[in-house]
Amino acid sequence: GENVEQHPSTLSVQEGDSAVIKCTYSDSASNYFPWYKQELGKGPQLIIDIRSNVGEKKDQRIAVTLNKTAKHFSLHITETQPEDSAVYFCAASFSGTYKYIFGTGTRLKVLA
Amino acid sequence: DTAVSQTPKYLVTQMGNDKSIKCEQNLGHDTMYWYKQDSKKFLKIMFSYNNKELIINETVPNRFSPKSPDKAHLNLHINSLELGDSAVYFCASSQPGGGTEAFFGQGTRLTVV
Q1: What is the pLDDT of residues A2-33, one digit of tens each?
Q2: Is there a contact between A97 and B98 (Cβ–Cβ < 8 Å)?
Q3: Which residues of A touch B41 (CB under 8 A)?
């Protein structure tokens, strides 16, 4: 069945260091890969997304890379700040599927 | 100007009771979803609706009955609540069919005692 694996489950970094979270998807039809940030007591919020016709996308300190052949995609956060501490989810979807398959989440802690 | 709003935010109830969660979106989206987030933070699709029609039911027990009176609203009614139903329930919406950004509500934390 459809599955998205996400690693690591927890990640602690020092403020200013980089953080990398990796995901692997199983459904070859997936062509849309969003990343969500969930802060305590709130709903997931999109921080960046990528489509399968693009290999990399960057938005200030956040970047996402996609390897379609290997079915891998990764989130890179540079110059981490304490406010980056949250749970991050990757997901996979495609138009017409009417769902998003989420990874199991990564709890990121940025230590000041 | 909340895009996806759910009520209530917290719900504490006894086993066996029936409860409802309401969701409304003002984004003009055709597709709406219910997701369940368990204690390990895993987000699992329960239902998806498109323009008031049920599209996906991910093997959810019959005690859960979604209802969409119009495409801006998707409510979730739960009968005979069980301890295992305790979780955070999220409503979300997107452009038709998925494959674009999904917007999530703030969640409803349901605790069954």
Answers
A1: 899 999 999 999 999 999 999 999 999 999 99
A2: yes
A3: 38, 87, 104-105, 107
